Each structure stands twice: as C-alpha cells, then as structure tokens.
C-alpha cells in the first residue's frame, strides 16, 4: 500500500481549519428531477458521489444531507448554513438552479457540481458562487482553503486527477439520518474504477475524465465489502458497482472477481462487451456472485454502432455474450437506444426478435439524447427540438431521425415496449429464472408500458 505524503497546501488547510473558531455549516443537496417519466420514483440508489463529498467535507465542516428524491425538502430559509452544495445531472438542472438561485440570493456560498455543471460550466456559473468541474477530490484542498478564507473562484478544475488510492470509504451515515432512508435501495453502491476510454460520442464520461482510467487497489475494494458485511451482520450483501466501465482492464477485473468469489457477496455492474464473449469471464462473474449485468447493446444495426464509436460492441458477439452469462446464472439488463438516423421500422422488429430469442431478462428502452458537452450534442444541436433540460431524461423525443417520420417512429417505440412486456412475452423471457426482483421489475414494467401513448414522449 503506497504511503501518501502531505503537501504544503494540505498542511496550510489543516492549520486554517484548526484556527477556525467554529466549523462552517454545509447543506448538501441531491435534487429531485422534474421529468414526467419513471425517474426518481419508488426505490432509489444512494447518491454515492454526494456521499463521498459529505465524507470528505465532514472532516472540516458540519454537514446536513438532503435527498429530495426521498421526499426530503430543502428549507426556504437557509440562514442556518454557510455553504449550499448541489449536485446536478441534466434532467434535474432546472431544479438545481432554482435551489442555487435561492441560496445565492440569501448570501450563501453556492457550489454546483455533477455532470451538467461540468459540461456547461459557463451556464452553471450564473447560478453559483463556484462550479466544481469533474470530481471534487482532485480540487478539494484548494476549494476548502478558499471557503475558509472566503476567497472563491468561479470554477475549480484540476490540472491532474488524483489517484484513487486516496479515496476514503464513504460514510453512509449521512444518508441514513433521514426518516425517509427506507426508500433507498438495499443494494450498497461501491466504486472500484473511474473513467472509460472507449469514447462513445454520446457519452459524458470522456469529457469529464478524458482518456484516464483509474482504479483503487483491489484490497481496498474488498476491505470495503467486508466492512459492510460486518456493519450489516451478514455475508450475502448486495453491491452495485457505480463504475463507468468496470471491465476495461481485464487483468484488474478478473483479479477483483477472484477476490470477491471468496466473500460470498452478490453484485451487479454496468459493463462493456469487450471481452464477455470469453466463457471463462462469464464463469468467473457467476462464481464471484454476479446476479445481473447491465449491458448497452444500444442497437442491432452495425452502421449505427459505428456512427457512435461503440467499438466494444460487435454484433457477431451479441448472442455469445448473452449465452455465456445465462449459462452461469447471470441475468441481463439490456439497454437499447432508438432515434438514430439509421433507424427504420425494421429496427424495432429486429430488437424485439433479439430480446425474445435471447430471453433478455430486463430490457430497457431509451430515446437517443445528445447530452450537452458531448461530441454528439455538438453534431446534433442544429436539429434539436428544444433545450428544456427537464426533458433530457432519455425518454423524450429530441429530433426526427432521417429514415423515419415522427409519428411512425413513436408509435413503433411504444408498440415495442408494450409487446416486450406483455404477460406472454415476460413468461417466455423469464421462464425458469429465479423468483427475484427482476420478476417484480417486469410486472411493474407491464403496468407502466400498458399506459404508454406516443404523445408522452414529445
């Protein structure tokens, strides 16, 4: 385990904090989204990134943690706080800006961070004292020092990203203080790596992290898992990896899984297909406790995959990947995107056939959404129907594909979802599968999709 050295700037921060007569009070906010779709409803995941901010800031400041998705509300009077820090994705940016504007009007130091303020920091600075570009850990010493001195910069952006060896274990106590904490998923979010060098042109990750791919020492990850086993008093703890692409470095991934196989945990993760066609990888995933992998199949059209730079997806591997995982008891949450210029009515039929024939347990359908800051956004900006951030949720129609009209496209998009989640189709996909939360998700999706109409996506 490498030893960390304390820099002069870190020593200065420690001295300044020790000289403070009273600790500054922070309000950390996870805003709810305003979207009309099934986002932030029901059970929600603990906001790991915001918990990491709370853990870091809690060493120097007093922290109050509010998650609006649970039903908690930000008070109108913010006089109890010195700093109001808000995280934001594009779909809740309007809500985040409203909170930030109110805090700024009351004379607070207002910090905006997260994907959307990073991508559109010029826009976000109009609503905040400062914007944190990317991860807070890499700018923390400078930011915390300026907060204590009251000398804020408009944007905090690291010239280099810190190694993950210095990452602290998140303190889940901040999130569990609310009476509504029971709405959090029982799955424990955990992080092993950051970044994804694949470079899909619709993805925000390369803009935030560049081509960097960082990872924690495997022992640190396993120790964190053991900590939660001891905290909860059981071995079979369910973990969700929040990594952008946990499998990018095969050697690291397989060594991590070999260690996890000895812990008797259960886990799921987002993963690319770059080497899942190898049977031994799927076998190791199943043996290490993986019960579900979330895979972005995106499209059954090779020209579409090429146009979005999805190099890790090879159509001739799709069925092999699915078969390997199923043979080892791993379910699949498959993501399929529609709205590319190469899409046609045939695209929907091909996707339906693939899902039914390969018995994909939990298909998820989304509309192509060019997110601000991505190459795809820059390319598609002249064709976008609007810039209403509330509708940038991957469930609203952003532009008309070249090969299909709006009415035909949306009617086919609705029909596909309803057909896939009809009772007969669910039975075909799920027959013989374990009775678990994936069954329940299918039942809920049956109820949801049966009510869909094309106009809801406009």
From TrEMBL:
Top-level division of the source organism's lineage: Bacteria
Keywords tagged on the record: Iron, Iron-sulfur, Metal-binding, Methyltransferase, S-adenosyl-L-methionine, Transferase
Annotated GO MF terms: catalytic activity; iron-sulfur cluster binding; metal ion binding
Domain Radical SAM core: 182-402
Transmembrane segments: none
Gene3D superfamilies: Cobalamin-binding domain, tm_1862 like domain
Record-linked SUPFAM superfamilies: Radical SAM enzymes
Keyword S-adenosyl-L-methionine part of the UniProt annotation: yes
InterPro entries cross-referenced by the UniProt entry: Bacteriochlorophyll_C12_MT (IPR034497), BchE-like (IPR051198), Elp3/MiaA/NifB-like_rSAM (IPR006638), Methyltransferase_Class_B (IPR034466), rSAM (IPR007197), rSAM_horseshoe (IPR023404), rSAM_sf (IPR058240)
Required cofactor(s): [4Fe-4S] cluster
Any Gene Ontology CC annotation: cytosol
Name of the featured protein: B12-binding domain-containing radical SAM protein
Organism name: Prosthecochloris vibrioformis (Chlorobium vibrioforme)
């Amino acid at each position: 385990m490498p030893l960390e050295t304390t820099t002069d700037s870190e020593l200065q921060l420690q001295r300044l904090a020790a000289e403070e007569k009273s600790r500054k009070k922070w309000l950390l906010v996870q805003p709810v989204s305003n979207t009309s779709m099934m986002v932030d409803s029901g059970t929600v995941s603990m906001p790991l990134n915001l918990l990491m901010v709370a853990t870091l800031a809690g060493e120097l400041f007093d922290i109050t943690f509010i998650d609006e998705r649970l039903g908690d509300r930000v008070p109108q009077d913010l006089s109890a706080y010195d700093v109001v820090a808000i995280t934001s994705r594009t779909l809740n940016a309007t809500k985040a800006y409203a909170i930030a504007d109110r805090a700024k009007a009351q004379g607070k130091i207002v910090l905006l961070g997260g994907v959307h303020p990073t991508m559109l920091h010029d826009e976000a600075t109009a609503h905040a004292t400062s914007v944190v570009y990317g991860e807070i850990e890499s700018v923390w010493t400078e930011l915390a020092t300026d907060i204590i001195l009251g000398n804020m910069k408009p944007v905090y952006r690291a010239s280099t990203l810190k190694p993950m060896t210095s990452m602290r274990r998140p303190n889940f106590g901040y999130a569990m203080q609310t009476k509504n904490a029971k709405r959090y998923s029982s799955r424990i979010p955990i992080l092993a790596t950051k970044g994804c060098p694949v470079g899909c042109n619709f993805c925000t990750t390369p803009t935030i992290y560049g081509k960097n791919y960082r990872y924690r020492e495997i022992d640190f990850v396993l120790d964190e898992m053991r900590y939660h086993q001891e905290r909860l008093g059981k071995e079979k703890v369910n973990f969700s990896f929040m990594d952008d692409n946990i499998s990018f470095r095969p050697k690291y991934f397989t060594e991590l899984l070999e260690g996890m196989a000895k812990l008797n945990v259960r886990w799921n993760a987002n993963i690319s297909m770059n080497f899942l066609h190898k049977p031994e990888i799927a076998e190791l995933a199943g043996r290490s406790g993986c019960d579900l992998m979330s895979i972005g199949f995106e499209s059954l059209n090779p020209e579409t995959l090429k146009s979005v730079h999805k190099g890790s997806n090879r159509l001739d591997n799709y069925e092999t990947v699915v078969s390997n995982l199923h043979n080892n008891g791993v379910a699949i949450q498959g993501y399929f995107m529609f709205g590319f210029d190469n899409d046609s009515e045939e695209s929907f039929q091909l996707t339906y056939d693939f899902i039914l024939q390969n018995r994909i347990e939990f298909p998820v359908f989304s509309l192509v959404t060019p997110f601000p800051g991505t190459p795809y956004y820059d390319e598609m900006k002249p064709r976008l129907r609007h810039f209403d951030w509330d509708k940038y949720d991957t469930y609203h129609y952003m532009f008309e594909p070249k090969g299909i009209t709006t009415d035909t496209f949306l009617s086919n998009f609705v029909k596909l979802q309803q057909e896939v989640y009809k009772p007969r189709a669910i039975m075909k996909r799920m027959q013989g599968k374990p009775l678990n939360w994936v069954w329940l998700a299918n039942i809920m999706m049956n109820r949801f999709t049966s009510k869909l109409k094309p106009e809801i996506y406009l």
